[in-house]
């Protein structure tokens, strides 16, 4: 009888131990995205699903944020585990320059890329504005406060000596302001190969024009702002628009080595790499995107990659 009790007690202890082990393996990750009205938020939700699909015991919570700059500040405070970061902002944070002058986040590392984004500087066509200099003194939204787009446009315009009357707000605020004539235009990051959803919606009621950067402006940015390239967008990208040249930067999801160990980083990268079908369902343009090649290319412009994630992408 005593032997039976001992066996029962052993079974209880083993069962409890297994339960505690399972609890210990469960993990919740906070993913800092961007404004909920952005298409980048939609793909963030798909990313969370992909990571969870690959990894039993991992739950990913998507957090609405102000995008790149805000996400890095949250990573620095340990408030999120990974977050969207534009390539130029990543390098500024890593090196303690630009928006992060004197406040380097020196263990910032990328987990995976998912896009090369361009800056759309969109103005009302009836404004008559055809170049960046003509934004001087005009009511203009440079992007979501704290976003990589806002940081890049603010820095670029300062280099050019252009001083619009900046009006800050959400993407929705910008669309409404342009539509009712309170704003002359706005800027934000968008996909390089399709018209941004916000611009598509705005153009149902308002004729718009996209502005580009001239050769002198491009050279100045390349000299002064690391991590920014340029691409030419062909004529007709939106109806009646001429070809234009605009900044292009890689967009990654980043963490800090002090926040995420190699094993977790590998799991996150694997979730993205093995379930691109989930991402393509939300963003069809990702069907032609090479995640492995892109993460390796980001290293060439100074973006560090988490060793755990790199181990997966190099397989």
TrEMBL record:
Keywords: Receptor, Signal
Keyword Signal in annotation: yes
A Pfam family per the record: NMT1_3
Source domain of life: Bacteria
N-terminal signal peptide: 1-26
Name of the protein in its database record: TRAP transporter solute receptor
Lineage, broadest ranks: Bacteria, Pseudomonadati, Pseudomonadota, Alphaproteobacteria, Rhodobacterales
